[in-house]
Amino acid sequence: MTAPSMLASYINGKFIDSEHYFDNINPVDGSVISKISEANHQMIDEAVAAAKASKWAQLTVNERSILLNKVADVMREREQAFIDAEMADTGKSLFQVQTIDIPRGTANFRFFADLVKFSASESFITDTPQGTKALNYSVNKPLGVVAIISPWNLPLLLATWKIAPAMACGNSVIFKPSEETSSTAFLLAQVMDEVGIPKGAFNLVLGRGHAVGDAITSHKEIDAITFTGASATGQKIMASAAATVKPISFELGGKNSAVVFNDADIDKAVAGVARSTFTNCGQVCLCTEKVYVHRSLFSEFVNKLKQQAAAIKIGYPSDKDVFMGPLVSKVHQQKVLSYYQLAREEGAIVEHGGGVPKFGDARDSGCYIDPTILTGLDDHARINQEEIFGPVCHVSPFDDEAEVIKRVNDTPYGLAASLWTENLSRAHRVAPQIDVGLVWVNTWFLRDLRTPFGGTKLSGVGREGGQHSLAFYSEPSNICIHIDQ
Ligand code: NAD
Fold first, then answer.
1. Active-site residue, 367 included
2. Which tens digits make up the pLDDT trace of 158-169?
3. Is 251 marked active-site?
4. pLDDT score for 3
5. Best of 9, 148, 178, 181 for a ligand 1 pocket test (most atoms within 8 Å of beta carbon)
6. Which residues contact 471 (CB under 8 A, 6 or more apart)?
7. What pLDDT, in 10s, does the model give residues 43-81?
8. Which residues lie below 8 Å from residue 54, measured CB to CB, with a gap of 6+?
């Protein structure tokens, strides 16, 4: 596995280092992959000034679309470099990076480059009882300079899900990836440079959240902020954005449930819940952490889920049949392990896992963790209320539909849920009663880029996807023309 060894920021069309560097660590074995140069305040000011002065907004929609499709073309040509870099930073399995992270990152550019060309603006004929007539139409303008702050769990995929629509709408961007995962962001800056994206339209500033992230989101000249990350960070960003009242779009944490009804196809449900719990080591905001199973199926379900967990191959991410690599960092490993400990203190039965696998080689210095299944806690245990963000779920029995809807909704989060049932009426009846932004029935993480994506309560503000993204990244201006009679 290779990844770039020195990572610099990209500002006003140039790669720029500062004097301050930190190490980028490989979570497989704790080795240093690269040095990351952290942007300073002067560099952030330069990036914002360059973004404001950029000619990007003056290009036609068609010209922007052609350039963004070129970005996708070159990303496709460099796919292997992106795969290697993403695996080195995150320890994700080759299968996942090859089939989800990198192709979706490229697809985001193609999708929004095309969508923006075919999106229409509103128009109304005003016709009053007094006989006044007018034509109203709206013109969608860019917001200006958009700050994009992204997390480490799906680094390229989630960043491009914001960069592509923001740029398609004519905004210039200041992009700060997570300090844990800067490598694919750096490769993307190289691609932007090579395809001739105008200076200042795409700026990459590298660094840690409290230092660089905060300096960007509190910057007076930033016109909008789009953020994906933890709910607590979203609260801080909201406070710093309040001073200058700017649009925000937040995709935050989750505490997602799966519900297995007594009419579910149990094998499909077990396989689906195993996937929704253990994919990417549980580090997807949509992952399941609470499972409710009808009491009549409970023991059978838990036994079958344990068999699935036991069959998971954990190892080197580059090995073809490995499903789970390490967690992203030591800090995160310690956080998830502290929840495994808390589960025991709260009285959980550890049905499977609960610790750290041993390999007898360099991986023992990495950030590996067991896939874990818990039972025996009530809904108000901290394990069932707080986001853990690891490969772990708690399984509880339930007796009836109204009860389970109430229990699923009893969380401060509202991102996603999955329902397992073969009863169509039940699916239609229950799905809209779950207080989340995304409900899947008999599947999980099946995404159509045109559909609204986002959460309620602590899980976020606003929606991304298709026209929802274009609406956030544009400022509509209504023009009203009086029609003389
Ligand atoms: P995080 O909030 O710690 O970091 C996210 C980004 O914010 C990073 O780039 C970080 O450097 C930056 N940041 C940190 N402090 C900041 C500050 N004070 N000001 C500005 N920027 C700051 O989140 P994480 O640990 O990288 O990601 C995991 C979290 O993200 C989980 O809670 C997960 O549920 C959530 N997430 C949500 C979605 C979604 O679509 N709803 C998707 C992926 C991840």
1. no
2. 999 999 999 999
3. yes
4. 65
5. 178
6. none
7. 999 999 999 999 999 999 999 999 999 999 999 999 999
8. 172, 198, 199, 200, 201
Mutate to test the pocket of ligand 1, among 160, 285, 456 (most ligand atoms within 8 A of CB): 285
CA of 387 to the centre of ligand 1 (A): 13
How many angstroms separate the CA atoms of 382 and 374, rounded? 13
Distance (Å, rounded) from C-alpha 207 to C-alpha 8? 10
Q: Is 217 helix (H, G, I), strand (E, B) or coil?
A: helix
DSSP 39: P
Ligand 1 centroid from CA 225, angstroms: 13
Comparing CA positions, the residue from 414, 429, 396 lying closest to residue 259 is 396
Cβ neighbours, 10 Å, residue 60: 10
Residues 6+ apart with CB under 8 A from 398: 259, 292, 293, 294, 295, 404, 407
Could you give all domains of the chain from N- to C-terminal order, each with its CATH number? 6-252+459-480 (3.40.605.10), 256-448 (3.40.309.10)
